[in-house]
Amino acid sequence: MIDKEIIDGFTKQFPDEADCIALVEKLRWPGGYRCPSCDHNEAYRIQTRKLPLFECRQCGQQTSLTVGTFMHGSKTPISKWLLTIYLVATQARGINAVKLSEILGVTYKTAWLMLHLIRRTITMTDGQEPLSGHVEAKHELFLADFWLVESRMSKEKSMIISREIGKQQSPRYKIKLIAESKTAREPLTEKHAMEFAAQQCDGGLRSFAINPRHQFSRYKTVFEDERNVNRTKLIILHASPAIFEQRQQLCSLAPSESLSEVAMSAREWMSRTFNGISAKYAQLYFDEFCFRLSHADCVEEIVFEKLVSLSFGINMCRMRKSSSYLLSNFSSIGNKSMQMAQQSA
Question: Is the pTM of this model over 0.90?
Answer without folding.
Answer: no
